[in-house]
């Protein structure tokens, strides 16, 4: 039997070219995952995303039920509808996961983020920063003669906008919490 | 009533309460207290393996042959890391395994102590779940939970890491009846509306096919029984994955044989041409589907699986049903009978006549030889000389011999066939055969092996001899890594890079060195007698069957191709795999 004619270095082709395309549309979803607050649970969730090649745009976690030791993980992820469905199914498979909610599907959720901004400057820039902070309803939580630390809450877009405005005014450092989200309404 | 006892005693008591009779293991510093307890009791039998990987594969063999979880006990550090391949294997094939590992004392964790490894960190990705038990009060409850998780829903391996000071500490023991109820309770009943929709589709179907997988076997004997009832009542053809062989009997009227990359022509063409595919407990693995955008293009697909993440993972499903196979099959039968047992008889008969045409191709035919033993011939003879025995268990290693065994050997019942399907672990078969033989001491247990795979865990022959396990190691010796060689021939220009076995041991002498019987056979005329000699010998046998060195395994769906593009033999291989296909494994 003779050899097949195969070009060298054909490995640039990916097996994934042969994968089905359910839909190419990338969607952004906010998932709320209720988990047992036990050691390693966050590693399991993150390991799932890295191991299977999913995206994490934002992730926040804190214990929300101190008696039941339950934590709520809020994850913002992007992917095709099929990938989003897979992510939810795979999350649901993790043993300490109690509930997986897709807040994007369950109705427009309230999404909020908290951020701290350190802005240093003097003179007009300092006054302008304070004026803009007032417009954005940011609070001053620390001040020196050369700097402010602002605390701001709101949608990620609002925080992005505030950051853009602060940059020319002496933004030195910023810390963001990532998104916390709840579904609207009584349910 | 709770009893106070040490952690080590609790481990043994918890195993006893979980109905464990056998543990496969290897001692070491961090599990000495548990080994001390094992020494002082007789309820649980400990099988000393020669390598921790062997312990996990043996436990897998035990689990698959019995339907009960396999239990492994190993030490910290290297003991735990050596179990990783076995854990991954069990995860891919959904085999219930409980691995107990020793760990350095809690006050040394994180200090890079002797034989310390981050066992739960390392095994997080290759277990269904794992636990590090730092509080002795939670030890017994955690072990009970571990058994629950390993065996509930889609089965899989779990690991409990137990620091040495926890083994020494005294606490009160919690029996299973008083353990906290786990919130992990997977759904077993399928949605009845979805089932009714599927039954309606089955009534209309003109070209139906059942595509069954390991899920049917994992679901228990009732699932196989119900599958047989449903297949025979509807008259639909049935094919199976490598993992599902035996769920429907190979001698059954509607059996098409295995499907997939090295599956039978008629099975793959039935999958390609069907109008209703009913997937029961299989997962549209890439070995099954081939090129996915050309996979069974004209069919509606039903998928019954206990794991919701399997559904719509690779193939879009028209009838998704989440549930345990036995429960769902029971409901399908109930609904189908209640609606009047309707089947589109005429169309299905036409469908069968097409299948019969494909069958006439006789895709498993091979050119026999009078000079050398063809591997297919060796397995056909092994099958012929053993198939009457209801207690015949076949294990395999991984490679060409594995595919030939699946093609040429027939299985009449579930739990008779142990092979590493998902992970494809060379070195699986010998320890697995030991696990099977431990579970069924009087059964005929044969490991169909290749010489290269077999060498990977051959140290376990010591275990077989120590416990007088009459396992038969049937090695198809082609002095090659046959499947690697086949791929190099087909798509790497016959450049056989490192795919031959040089400096092979004399297997007969090796067998004798281990204290078992060695048989060598290289003449087709002697084969039957040699096999009979192997079967008659009451003890472990290493059978060195020297076979044709360059035989290729057909039929074959080249990677990147569709089911209807399969190759039947040597003549068709030219230009068969294109550039895109060559990057797939």
TrEMBL record, chain A:
Family according to the record: Belongs to the acetolactate synthase small subunit family.
Quaternary organization: Dimer of large and small chains.
Functional note: Catalyzes the conversion of 2 pyruvate molecules into acetolactate in the first common step of the biosynthetic pathway of the branched-amino acids such as leucine, isoleucine, and valine.
UniProt-recorded name of the protein: Acetolactate synthase small subunit
GO cellular component: cytosol
Domain ACT, first and last residues per copy: 30-105
UniProt GO BP: isoleucine biosynthetic process; L-valine biosynthetic process
Group of enzyme by EC: transferase
EC numbers for this chain: 2.2.1.6
Family annotation (Pfam families): ACT_AHAS_ss, ALS_ss_C
Pathway: Amino-acid biosynthesis; L-isoleucine biosynthesis; L-isoleucine from 2-oxobutanoate: step 1/4; Amino-acid biosynthesis; L-valine biosynthesis; L-valine from pyruvate: step 1/4
Catalytic reaction list: 2 pyruvate + H(+) = (2S)-2-acetolactate + CO2
InterPro entries noted in UniProt: Acetalactate_synth_ssu, Acetolactate_synth/TF_NikR_C, Acetolactate_synth_ssu_C, ACT-like_dom_sf, ACT_dom, AHAS_ACT, AHAS_small-like_ACT
Keywords linked to the UniProt accession: Amino-acid biosynthesis, Branched-chain amino acid biosynthesis, Transferase
Organism: Rhodosalinus halophilus
GO molecular function terms listed in the Swiss-Prot or TrEMBL record: acetolactate synthase activity; acetolactate synthase regulator activity
UniProtKB/TrEMBL annotation, chain B:
Nucleotide-binding among keywords: no
GO biological process per UniProt: isoleucine biosynthetic process; L-valine biosynthetic process
InterPro entries associated with the record: Acetolactate_synth_lsu (IPR012846), AHAS_TPP (IPR039368), DHS-like_NAD/FAD-binding_dom (IPR029035), THDP-binding (IPR029061), Thiamin_PyroP_enz_cen_dom (IPR012000), Thiamin_PyroP_enz_TPP-bd_dom (IPR012001), TPP_enz (IPR045229), TPP_enzyme_TPP-bd (IPR011766)
Cofactor note: Binds 1 Mg(2+) ion per subunit.
EC number(s) per entry: 2.2.1.6
Domain Thiamine pyrophosphate enzyme TPP-binding: 398-545
Keyword Transferase carried by entry: yes
Reactions this protein catalyses: 2 pyruvate + H(+) = (2S)-2-acetolactate + CO2
A single cellular component GO annotation: acetolactate synthase complex
Pathway: Amino-acid biosynthesis; L-isoleucine biosynthesis; L-isoleucine from 2-oxobutanoate: step 1/4; Amino-acid biosynthesis; L-valine biosynthesis; L-valine from pyruvate: step 1/4
Domain Thiamine pyrophosphate enzyme N-terminal TPP-binding positions: 5-120
Entries under NCBIfam families matching the protein: acolac_lg, PRK09107.1
Record family assignment: Belongs to the TPP enzyme family.
Protein name: Acetolactate synthase
Organism: Rhodosalinus halophilus
